[in-house]
Amino acid sequence: MREMQRAPFEDVIWDAAEKLSLADLRVLQLRRLRETVTLAMAVPFYNRVLRQMGLSPETIQSLDDLRRLPMTTKEDLRQHYPLGMLAVPREEIRRIHGSSGTTGKPTFVAYNDADMTTWADLCARFLTAGGLRSHHLVQIAFGYGLFTGGFGLHYGVERVGAAVVPAASGNTRRQILIMKDLQPDVLICTPSYALNIAEVAACEMSDPRSLPVRYAHFGGEPWTEDMRRRIDAALDVMSFNNYGLSEVMGPGVAGECWIRHGMHLHEDHFLVECLDPTTLEPVKPGEVGELVITTLTKQAMPMLRYRTRDLASVSEEPCPCGRTHRRMSRVMGRTDDMLIIRGVNVFPSQIEEELLRVDGTLPHYIIEINRPGTLDEAIVRVEIERELFSDEMRKLQALHDRIDREIHAVTGIRMKVDLVQPRSLQRYEGKAQRVIDHRVLVDKPAPVSGSPEGAPAGLPLNP
Ligand SMILES: [Zn+2]
């Protein structure tokens, strides 16, 4: 029973707001939502749209009125490139970050003084829930720069009062040297880079588990529970998941407590809806939908109902840790990550989950899609343990057949399975590339009519 679980370390609540009663939380959210709409009136784009819809801050009488507000999409941000969504004078800006755009131009997001303070505070909140204490040393192996991950976590760690080694990503041997010599307690990076570090460490020393790191905070890319088990075992750490996106702030939207069963949304700073991406109606608690986020305290660039494209579920079940804010599941995929193979919707995370469930596989894989004629062909290449190649062929064939069956069962389509030697696939220092779609350049699936941003219809909402 979960209720009987004991915290593996003394739980510390960073901010009393984490345990607000639901009634008090609603009152706070309503007041802040009205303030946000007032602030949004200073953004020409929102001002025009809200007026057209006959809406004003006074329209917001209850939290249900949130649904009357317009949605914001990535495309809206692109159209107001570079800083057309500012609600404050440009002189007030203290920091600008950006997210990489697939079309070339990044999307910029801006922060004023108050936003910077809030951001550091919210990162401190989930880092504390995940074991960080002021006497710790933290190695940040995230990319620094426009990407919000590095700087967001950096200021969060400092806010807690802990020390930072801003190692940044890359140069894996040096990362290991820093770990051995400076003895950090905590590692922060993408989950795939943690695996990369564990693997290089295993080549250089007898046991990567002897590295001093005890806690790890991962973000920046989707990962699965099986991936967590493997990383925790490889590095002998307790790893925590956190969630955020630059458009609404960066990391700090949600993070795990010691229960590690869903990430507490920071609901005093964000109103989070979970909607069916096709009908835009709320899904039931616990069902997977697209997260749509309204900022409640962001000043420089408030966001009304931002469509994140991230698919996750939100649970209203009380958490044994005592924090009252709802918990979101890990991100199952993105509406725009979804692959359509032979007309069937497939998420790379579904394939990862099946692959890692099979004994003998290593957590390194790639999905390649081709269209040699008129039919799509998908190949899943996965690394397997070296011993399996020296074993009899029969075992190798059995492993191949099992993976083939599992993938077919979960996706409904047959993919070619290619078992490859350890370390034969490319490694990444930031986000791992899991899919190579050779079809994309010539033949991208057309947007579904009726959904202006091309949201695919008929998503498989049960991962
Ligand atoms: Zn909790």
Characterize the structure shown.
The protein is an alpha/beta fold and 463 residues long. It folds into 2 domains: 2-21 and 93-334, Rossmann fold, CATH 3.40.50.12780; 339-437, GMP Synthetase, Chain A, domain 3. Helices cover 29% and strands 23% of the residues. It has helices at 22-40, 44-52, 74-79, 113-129, 148-160, 172-182, 191-204, 225-235, 348-357, 386-390, 393-411; strands at 93-99, 107-112, 137-140, 163-165, 186-189, 215-218, 238-245, 250-256, 263-265, 270-275, 288-295, 306-315, 327-328, 333-334, 339-341, 344-346, 361-370, 377-384, 416-420, 435-437. Strands 3, 4, 5, 6, 7, 8, 9, 10, 11, 12, 13 and 14 form a 12-stranded mixed β-sheet that branches. Strands 19-18-17-20 form a 4-stranded mixed β-sheet. It has a two-stranded antiparallel sheet with strand order 1-2. Helix 7 links the parallel strand 5 (186-189) and strand 6. Helix 4 (113-129) crosses helix 5 (148-160). The model is unreliable at 441-463 (pLDDT under 50). The protein binds zinc ion. Zinc ion is lined by residues 257, 259, 264, 319, 321, 323.
